[in-house]
Every structure is written in C-alpha cells, then in structure tokens.
Amino acid sequence: MARVVQIIDACPDSLAGLRDKVVAYLQYYSQGRRRECARFRIASVELISEKLMVVRKRTSKDDEQDAGREYEIGDRAAITAIRAWIAELTRLGEAAPRMPLLRRINKRDALSGQ
Predict the structure, then answer these.
(1) How far is CA 60 from CA 29, 41, 52, 68, 99, in A?
(2) How many CB atoms within 10 Å of residue 39?
(3) What is the pLDDT along the chain (114 residues), one digit of tens a residue?
(4) Hey, what long-range contacts does 106-113 have (CB within 8 A, 24 or more apart)?
(5) Which stretches of 16-92 are assigned E, i.e. beta strand?
(6) Using an 8 Å Cβ cutoff, are 111 and 104 in contact?
(7) Whole-prediction pTM value?
(8) Are 98 and 42 spatial neighbours (Cβ–Cβ below 8 Å)?
C-alpha cells in the first residue's frame, strides 16, 4: 500500500489526476490487470455505506466459470476518490450504469470526445 500512496500523492489536482487515483485504488484493491480494470462499468461500483464500497469484476483471465468476483474496499480515501470520480462523470452526463468507469482524458483535461 505504501507504493499506492506514493502514486496517489504524485497525482495532480485535475480530472486526469482524479482518474489516475481511481485507477491506482482499483488495481490495488481488485488485484486487477489493466485490461480487467478497463472493463469496469459505473454499475460495477456499489456504495454500501460511508465506510464500505463493493466493486464487482465480471470475469478475469483466471475465472474459467465466468463467475466474476466482488472486492470490498474499506479505505475511506479510496471510497472518496471513486465517489468523486463518479460524481464528476455524473456532472458531465457520462455516468449511465453501463458506461465504462474509466475514461480517456485529453490534453485539455476533459473527457475524450467532449
């Protein structure tokens, strides 16, 4: 976790920085490969309480039965970052449940395509 904190501390205070924090937290807590994390949808994230969030990974390379897996996140900083990212996507009208959770950010610090 110490390395994750270093990565997060190095993220700029921008839309891209917020997205990068979310990527770092999701990869750490879901033990996900880059490709697996890219498949997360908005609906993959469920806030259970202020202290608990569940992220559902539908399938992975090692999931031969396609059962998927749930990961609990109890880290307040991670929950805050993920909620802030989803709130920003909502503000931009880009938070439908089936839409990808992680998005490209262009050089103007805006979602690609906007």
Answers:
(1) 15, 14, 23, 7, 19
(2) 16
(3) 899 999 999 999 999 999 999 999 999 999 888 888 888 999 999 999 999 999 998 765 565 555 678 999 999 999 999 999 999 999 999 999 999 999 999 999 999 865
(4) 109/14, 109/15, 109/16, 110/15, 111/15
(5) 45-49, 52-57, 69-73
(6) yes
(7) 0.87
(8) yes
